[in-house]
Design a protein that fits this description.
The structure is a homodimer. Chain A has helices at about 15-40, 45-55, 60-65, 70-85, 105-125, 130-150; strands at about 85-90, 100-105. Chain A is mainly alpha-helical. In chain A, a hairpin with a 7-residue loop joins strand 1 and strand 2. The first copy, chain A, is globular, with a radius of gyration of 20 Å. The model of chain A has no long low-confidence stretch (mean pLDDT about 95). Chain A binds a DNA duplex through helix 4.
DNA sequence: AAAATATAGTTTCATATGTAACTAATTTGA
DNA sequence: TCAAATTAGTTACATATGAAACTATATTTT
């Protein structure tokens, strides 16, 4: 069968990977504006900050695992946060290669400012869905995540 | 209330923008391997190819609208595809600023090789979901897209 | 207890990407 | 009808990113 547009059979606008990517980027960009414009943080710095707030003393490697960032990205985000005075590196007593990372007082301060903004933007987004739909979406995403990355947990 | 990890109230792993981003990247990367490793195409080049196959004679600007790529990205992807011999630029008769873009024979050839691979990978992914769940996912994503970008259609 | 191997994290270098400035053609509107 | 504004697309520049090499420490193997 010769190729014609009619039998292309792949319309980008119905192709799941494309739709997911565009949707995800639209949402991420919207949220990224919150902490970029207001606080000068990159999305990576924000992620590092979030997991460090959640687990004070965490190592760079652990941060990478929880945020799905590679170690170079973590290293750079951490360096930036330290330079901005939001993060502190404490040498680990039991392993001199690691550091224990903690937010500084200033870091906690802006973290606490960002959290409600981020959560309310998330709430605004998902308010387009009913509670049941939100739960369903989470469930479907988890199933997809399993299919997309059987080898490792995504979240 | 002083800050403690307990009242952080934002766990990245349950934060929708983060989950979507990680899921989308995992899926995109998996698919990107198909056309990168086998055919040396970037994700942007693949998108340009897909919409051009679907709409021969399309302009760069239209490609940008359909793929959500900015004009610089389109320009670069087009330049790459032309250099590889997969795309041809035809001057538009009615507007000398535009070109009409079409896949070359070689371009159609590899496009037709990629489509079934991409579709079968998509099928593999969504086979984790029932038909009903697939439909539901599409519906929920469309709702989210509306909330995330009320000003423009994402797909 | 060395020597070999592995791990934590950083630096380097090459490439990708986004913003702004630019060129050329077209449209608007006084 | 011609000057101003818009649009299509490219180029230049500055920044972001990823892969590989590297440093320093820890662990494993013999």
């Amino acid at each position: 069968m010769p190729y014609t547009p009619e039998n292309a059979a792949l319309r980008l606008s119905t192709f799941l990977p494309f739709r997911l990517s565009v949707l995800s980027n639209a949402i991420s960009q919207r949220i990224a504006e919150l902490y970029d414009r207001e606080f000068g943080l990159s999305i990576w710095q924000w992620r590092v900050m979030a997991v460090t707030a959640d687990s004070p003393g965490i190592s760079a490697t652990e941060i990478g695992q929880r945020t799905q960032m590679d170690k170079v990205a973590v290293s750079r985000a951490v360096a930036g946060l330290i330079e901005m005075g939001y993060l502190e590196r404490r040498p680990s007593t039991d392993d001199a290669r690691r550091s224990n990372l903690v937010l500084t007082k200033a870091g906690m301060g802006i973290y606490e400012l960002i959290v409600p903004l981020a959560l309310s933007e998330e709430a605004r987004l998902v308010s387009a869905l009913s509670d049941k739909e939100q739960a369903e979406l989470g469930r479907l995403m988890a199933k997809l995540a399993g299919a997309a990355s059987p080898e490792r947990d995504l979240w």
